[in-house]
Design brief:
The chain is α/β, with parallel strands linked by helices and 396 residues long. It is built from twelve helices and 17 strands. It binds flavin-adenine dinucleotide and uridine-5'-diphosphate. Flavin-adenine dinucleotide (FAD) binds at residues 7-13, 31-34, 39-41, 55-59, 215-216, 231-232, 236, 250, 307, 336-338, 344-347, 349. Uridine-5'-diphosphate binds next to helix 5 and helix 6.
Length: 396
Amino acid sequence: MFDYLIVGAGFAGSILAERLAARSDAKVLVMDKRNHIAGNAYDFYDDAGVLVHKYGPHIFHTNSEKVFEYLSRFTEWRPYEHRVQASVDGQLVPMPINTDTLNKLYGMNLTCQEAEGFLASVAEPRAEIKTSEDAVVSRVGRDLYEKFFRNYTRKQWALDPSELDAAVAARVPARTSKDDRYFTDKLQAMPLNGYTRMFERMLDHPNIRIMLNTTYREVEQEVQFKELIFTGPIDEYFEYCYGRLPYRSLHFKHQTFDRELYQPAAVVNYPNEHAYTRVTEFKYLTGQEHPKTSVVFEYPRAEGDPYYPIPQPQNAELYARYKALGDALPNVHFAGRLATYRYYNMDQVVAQALMLADRLTARNPGTSPLASVHPPSATREEGRTNGSKLNGTATA
Ligand code: FAD
Ligand code: UDP
């Protein structure tokens, strides 16, 4: 009998496992349908021996000392500040838009103060900032919006910026300093030996068992547990009873080149050309020295693993209906980017998981009732006795 079954071995699931095992002495089974831990942050050495991120570039940045201190128990860090160039009008310019971007793009020689005046002169004021189009056009005007944001967003989301919440494009705000870092958080670093190593250390506890290559549905009837923590898509948990929550997916095309470097920056964004949105060269992120180099091209698509919740009002409403179902199940807890349908960065997921862990450890785990955690369902296949992949990897 496990105290907790945790579905998903990404940031949310692994942190909850670690906290519950370490603080409440709880017996925890963490499972994942993939063949590895670390969720979307998973990294590995490719055939050429270059450390790459399987699911696209993951750069750690946070303003939370608490989050950084917690993760520092499981990894040392490599100082790293991320920089991105955008390919626009045949040249590479700094992204987010800054004074140097404006000068290079328009052949000007503005000071930072003059750049502020320039943006004010081209900005189109909007009474209300509701959509990503509002957010960008009201700050940098239509030309820069069209050059940097409109087509990238259409490619990434298959939606016009006018159909997406303002918060999406507001992740990359224009500035008039010469700061060309992608993030301005006070703590920015990469795990020294990679994310996967950090997760291995996090999950290395005698009370934690790990079961991979297995979906929750395959074992829900067979593993005995008191409480469930679910970090997959919340609509999947409830068997899509209110319809599907939309998620955006990506195809990652990894490629290795037999040369030292492929491009002049860690990431190059392609708002207007190509079917892919951006190209990441991992050696910039990891600091690895290697005669070859590996990159990943990101091709947005509708089908495939769910990577991005889609921030639109109607999706927030649908999520709220699923959340209400979840709130009615006292022994089921939802955490992470997919289960709480939030466009969260890693540090936000860490903070959310630590908060839930605090809440759960504040209760006495020994008194948790063995209650049903299964959602009511007319369609779920009952009484399956086979299909378990528990053998050898964990025991209930
Ligand atoms: P995940 O990492 O998605 O983990 C959930 C796990 O649950 C998965 O491993 C999945 O296989 C498993 N699972 C789901 N359903 C089931 C089921 N039914 N049965 C069994 N297992 C199941 N954040 C940053 O801070 N910086 C970045 O630079 C950054 N870059 C990103 C780039 C891309 C392309 C993407 C997609 C995300 C990026 N993020 C970045 C966000 C970051 O990936 C997430 O915030 C974080 O990984 C979310 O952790 P999680 O545990 O919520 O979810
Ligand atoms: N964006 C854009 N052009 C860019 C970079 C970003 O239009 O060159 C918009 C786009 O809608 C994107 C969003 O800003 O989805 C957030 O960008 P971010 O780089 O934060 O995306 P993520 O790393 O989460 O994929």
